Amino acid sequence: MRNYSSVLFLVALLFGLNLDAQTKRTKYYEFGAGIGTLNMSNEIANSSRVNAVFAEIDAQISIFAKYHVNDWFGLGGEISFGNLNASDANHDNFNRGFSVNTSLVTGNLFSEIHLIRFGKYHLDQKHTIFLKGGLGVAGWNPELQIAGLVPENIDIETDAYIGMNTFVGLGVKYRVSYHGIITAELRYSTVRGDTMDGILETAPNSISDNDKFWGVMFSYSYAIL
Fold first, then answer.
1. Backbone φ and ψ of 94, nearest 5°
2. What is the pLDDT of residue 24?
3. CB contact set of 127 (below 8 Å; sequence gap of 6+)
């Protein structure tokens, strides 16, 4: 039994050393920045009409750093700054007269999974598809404009707020040089709060959902291989 235990221990040790060596050999880093679009979904932006989406698109910028453990898996962190807009005139409550402009700051940690091998020793592979997910903190500050009377079942919530942020994403990468990578990704985020639009519905039959925002991000990163 001792011999078997010794053999198993030796195999586990060799496997661990090999995995560590593999990680050291294939790991690399990315540092970059991006610019993209933002739209939100809430009590004002309560429809998905195409014309509303285009009318309310706003911008965000982001900086990020990634540590790729190997060709398939990476971890990272990011900070983003953006702006969100919505107006009743573009959605279901078009006669109510509310519109909002909301500044947004997020800080997230995330993981990234390549669906096609992409990394340090695969320079011939120019592109990959990836899945992404993470969580962090969001801060937002809605500025509400009101054209008309405020309905009785609406509370005005225009202070600065902070809450947890979670997101999922799907994207593609393309290697443009030995170190240069361009990325396009679609991301969908949810915050733990219902005040991003500056209002809160208080009717007895109203359902308070967490606010959401989404957009497309285009970025450039420099890989340290």
1. -65, -15
2. 63
3. 116, 118, 172, 173, 174, 175
